[in-house]
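call fold(seq) -> tokens
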Amino acid sequence: MNNSIYPCIWLKSNRLEAAEFYCSLFNGQISQSNEYVSELYIFKQRLMLLSGGPNIEFKINPSISFMLLCDSIDQVQYYWDQIITDGCALMPLDRYPWSPFYGWVQDKFGVSWQLYLDPREDFTSQRLIPTLMFTENNAGKALNAMQFYTHIFPNSEITSLLYYKESEKGSENSDYIQHAQFTIDDFILYAMDSSYSHHFDFNQGISLVVETSSQMETDHLWTSLLQHGGIPMQCSWLKDQFGIHWQIVPKRLIELINHANPNIAQLAMNAMFHMQKINIQEIEDAITP
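ret:
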């Protein structure tokens, strides 16, 4: 598992409440927190929570959800009971062809969780898996997206593909992906297509952060993810051709904006605010007397 890739949830409000809720629910811990960001460790995985303020226009939706692999019925039931409080069910807790006990639930912060029982899973590796649903104008593009991402990142591959059955063609296109697993640089993601009209699509409510070790890596990922119609954004953010948002963040930038000297931290932050793709040398120059 690669902990240099991790999801970010951008909340309008209640970031600290959400951090405490997730840590309590999943026996996690807050590794660092400041005015804007809280970083959590859940099942030894990183999760970032970002404060957006009440004026942000997007809304978190189930286009990116979190599949949580559980090893017992009791565990699924416990998480369900806690998450559904002030939340809502998207698929009821029940037996399904793909799992003997499964439910899809949205919590009070708008984040969606798929609780999946499969005692055969190897819980020594990644247990919390971002799941991408390609719907609306993206319906049918899951395979294309996985091929795109695995071509860009090292140590990447599509590890499983399951198409909708021909007998289900009345409800879903049999050429579409019902479920797939792929890795990008040893970080696991799931993907699926849905031809139903869900009235939502990918947005910046949930993004993927990639921490880079060099300017070369930063340049490569930034340029590659912008291919075929992606849009560069401010402060390391970009939107790719499918509408999925990424943050390509040099590790050195994180060190500088968390520097023990507040003047250096502020200078690094100010320099970052004027950038789209992060140029570390320019930030180093900005903090040099």
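DSSP finds seven helices and 16 strands in the chain.
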